[in-house]
Structure formats: C-alpha cells, structure tokens
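Researcher: Quick test of sequence recovery. Tokens follow.
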C-alpha cells in the first residue's frame, strides 16, 4: 500500500520554485532517506508529503487521501528540525510531551487507563521511562529525539517523518538512535528521514530520494551509490539520473 503518493508536485516561496516536477511514492514499511545539498528543498518536500504545506500544482496523497486533510495528519509523527532548541526552554516533563500524542483521540474529559498505558508503553519502547518526570529542557539532544519518537508511538502513528533528527547529537547516541529507527522500521513503521550524512543514510535506509529542487534519483541505496546521481545533484546538475520508480 502507498503511504505517500507525490505526483508532479511544484512548490514556490513567493516566485522562487524550490520543489519542481517531483513524483515519488513511499510504500508501507519503506525507510526513505531524503538527501540533497543545503537549501535543495528537502524540508519543504517533507512538509508537502505530510500535508503541512499544499502544493502549488500537482497532488500529494497520504494514506490514500489528500495530504492536507486533517484525518491523515493524526497518523503522522513529525520530528521537526532543531527540536532541541525549540522545545528546550519549555518547562514540560517528558511524560507530558509524550501524552500530547494522545490529545487527538481524547475528545472529552480525562485521560483513560488506555491512554496512560499507551504513554508508558511508548516511554518503555524508546527506553526513556526513567526520564519520564524530567523536564524536556534538561535532556540531551539524543534523549530529546526519543521523546518525540515516543510521542509519535503514543499517537499510534503509522508514518514517522524526521528532519535531520541527530544534528548536534554525539556519535554514540546517534548510532543508538538510528538503531532504534531501524528496529521500529523492522516492526512495520514507515519512515521518511532527512539526513545530510550520506554514509549514514545509505547504510540505514531502504530507499533513497536525492533532491535538488528536482528529484535526481529515487531508488535503492546500492544503485544510488553506484550512479553519479549524487555528484549530479550536488554538482553542476549536468548528468541527471532520473528516478527509477
Ligand atoms: N518559509 C520560507 N520562505 C521563503 N523561503 C524559504 C522558506 N523556507 C525555506 N525557504 C527557502 O527555500 C529553499 C529550500 O528550503 P528547504 O528548507 O526546503 O531546503 P532543505 O534542503 O531542507 O535545506 P537545509 O538542508 O538547509 O535544511 C531554501 O533556499 C530556503 O532558503
């Protein structure tokens, strides 16, 4: 089943196009690594994919529905860029942030036992149950990323969208974080990840999409490494390898 279907999408800020002619699909269970130079439109494309932005032309479907429809948004766990800084000063505890994952399903009244159980299970799954009562602002970058993964798990998200989640995280925590993402993917979670480290992403992802405004490549990591899509996207753009899907 296609989780995300991007078809002929264009998007411009004012008059400046940053995503052009992009078509790609993310299948259930995929681990898509989205790569490309700085400013190549990766964040914008990710936001289009999960319905945070609407394309100027073309279409994006998420779980078979128009991506901007509110129902589909609940099924996406989004870990934005620089979550470390933006959430850092907030005087909320880890448990409170993870509990926010339950808000969309709580129409009236209190949290149920089921909500509490889901929060506890999510904290355990990402191995931060011992941090539950700590303030998010006091955590390391790596721990904080886990809090946002736990929030997505508590929300029972079917798709995790992460924008350079390990910027500023030390090498050891980074490895552990990617191990966790790999495990979640093995358990069936669909993942779309923006990552600037090509080595990390080609060793972890099942699919690579290489963007520089247009899509230069979409296919498996082995083929990506073998082709010159990378230098084309990062270089003069002369030898474009179009997506293979
Ligand atoms: N809200 C905005 N308004 C105007 N221009 C924007 C906005 N957000 C991004 N841009 C510009 O659009 C282009 C694509 O940005 P985007 O963040 O999608 O790329 P990116 O590949 O994620 O970049 P990076 O790797 O630096 O995060 C960049 O030139 C950026 O400066």
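Model:
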């Amino acid at each position: 089943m296609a989780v995300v279907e991007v078809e002929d999408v264009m998007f411009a800020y004012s008059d400046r196009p940053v995503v052009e002619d992009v078509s790609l699909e993310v299948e259930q269970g995929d681990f898509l690594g989205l790569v490309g130079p700085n400013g190549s439109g990766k964040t914008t494309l990710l936001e289009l994919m999960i319905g945070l932005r609407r394309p100027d032309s073309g279409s994006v479907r998420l779980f078979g529905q128009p991506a901007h429809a509110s129902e589909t948004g609940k099924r996406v766990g989004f870990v934005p860029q620089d979550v470390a800084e933006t959430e850092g000063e907030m005087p909320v505890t880890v448990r409170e942030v993870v509990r926010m994952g339950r808000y969309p399903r709580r129409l009236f009244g209190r949290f149920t036992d089921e909500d509490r159980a889901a929060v506890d299970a999510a904290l355990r799954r990402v191995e931060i149950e011992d941090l539950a009562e700590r303030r998010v602002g006091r955590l390391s970058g790596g721990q904080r990323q886990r809090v946002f993964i736990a929030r997505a798990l508590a929300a029972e998200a079917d798709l995790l969208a992460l924008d350079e989640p390990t910027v500023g995280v030390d090498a050891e925590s980074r490895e552990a974080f990617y191990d966790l993402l790999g495990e979640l993917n093995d358990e069936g979670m669909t993942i779309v990840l923006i990552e600037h480290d090509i080595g990390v992403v080609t060793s972890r992802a099942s699919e690579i999409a290489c963007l520089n405004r247009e899509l230069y490549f979409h296919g498996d990591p082995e083929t990506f490494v073998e082709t010159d899509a990378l230098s084309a996207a990062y270089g003069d753009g002369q030898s474009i390898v179009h997506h293979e899907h």
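The domain at 1-75+159-245 is CATH 3.40.50.300 (Rossmann fold).
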